[in-house]
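Q: Sequence in, structure out?
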Amino acid sequence: MTQRLIDSHWCSVLKALIVFHRGIDQVGPGYASRVADLNLSLASFNDPSEKGAAHSRMIQEYYAYVKAKAHNHSRRNSALLAPQAERAKFFSKLDGNELVREIGYLNNQLACLVKIGPTADLALRNYNLKVTQNAVGFILKDGAPLYRTLDLGISQLIEGFGMIDPDSIEVAIDHYKKFEQNTNTLKKFFQLGSMLSNAVGIAPPKFTQRSREVLASLSSYAGDVNPELAVSLSDVKMSKEELEMQK
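A: Exactly. Output:
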């Protein structure tokens, strides 16, 4: 299968990535570890054919996502290895620094997932091939459980923000901001589900609506702990209407 990834034909590479992707869930951590250790140059993959050109960027982003997912499924004590029903308890047992670190890993996977959205949209609109639909379908099926897991971690981060080491506060707030940005992009990505012929099991999660005041409160607390952080972290960008509403 690794040889298939080295193949220059876009369709062979995309099919191989689907197999690697599914294998992470179905085979186990040992397999995921081997996938995470792959060191291939797919970041520069390029098939100059007509259909290849429409899929090359998607393949680059898909490979990055498969690697990120494999890493999170091969780490010891990863939140994704805990049963879904026990993940809230999993996060509650982490100390502040462990929580920030775990959210960082999950945030990276979500960022890699949503980055596929625009390139997948381009490939589907140009050709809407079955292999492309299958790939997008498997990616979107990851979206809801990954979001729900990360959302649990973010809730714990907000609740236990005062327990985070002062040196990690800036990183924690950055994770929160990136999570909010990735959530907005994930909502748009799920709209591609309407372009799939078989969208069974693909549904967006129930997104948590958090007030913008949450970020302002975290920033204010950070400023109390370290005045130098107040300026760099209080950049809550709102329109005039939003500012008026907050007042």
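The longest helix spans residues 96-126.
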